[in-house]
Amino acid sequence: MRARKYNQNCPIAIGLDILGERWTLLILRELVGGPRRYGDLRAALPGIATNLLAERLKELQGDGLVDRVDLPAPIGRTVYALSELGWTKVLPILRSIAWLGLDRLDPVDSGPVSPLNGFLAGVLLPFEPGVTDGLDITCRVEIDGRRFDFAVSDGHLAAPHGDPAVTITASAADLVVARQGSTEAKRRAALRRVGVEGDPDAVAAVRQAFAL
């Protein structure tokens, strides 16, 4: 049981009971990028105490938002992943918070852009659910050596299933500039460098759904 709760029969208070603790949303942010080992999460969240990370993961598993998966040999390791419920319930919240913070990001030319930031700003945030009716495919995004897999299913983003039908390849900087470039020319130039390959019909649908 969590030590602190609002004890209010209100959907916002109950939601905050689940997601309002420090680090919880950032853990979920990392898992949007795919299954992660405990050590991967520690490395991506500098400053979190190891016992606190373990506690948060246990709470999120108890809430049904995160799955703990023991991979078989020869891999033989434990990873944490967003559950189907996590994709359905948490992703819209993360997207809304990211929209709030997007225009406050430091300019791209002031420092490096992480692959995860490129994925969030360049792929997930521009997603338009209304144009994906009937689309059911798995997509792969390759960003600066890191791979992100997800699916589009029933008009929303979901956990990947099966082999990807479409692969998007880009640098994190280009994905951010394509959305936030200071001029239309810079945005268009960055967008032209984003590659989208796969089944032609699926590519056309993905380009429309993600404004690519």
Automatic annotation (TrEMBL):
Domain HTH hxlR-type: start-end pairs: 10-109
Keyword Zinc: no
Highest taxon listed in the record's lineage: Bacteria
Residues that span the membrane, as ranges: none
Keyword Cytoplasm attributed: no
GO MF entries: DNA binding
Keyword annotations: DNA-binding, Transcription, Transcription regulation
Xref: SUPFAM superfamilies: Winged helix' DNA-binding domain (SSF46785)
Name of the protein: Transcriptional regulator
Organism: Mycobacterium alsense
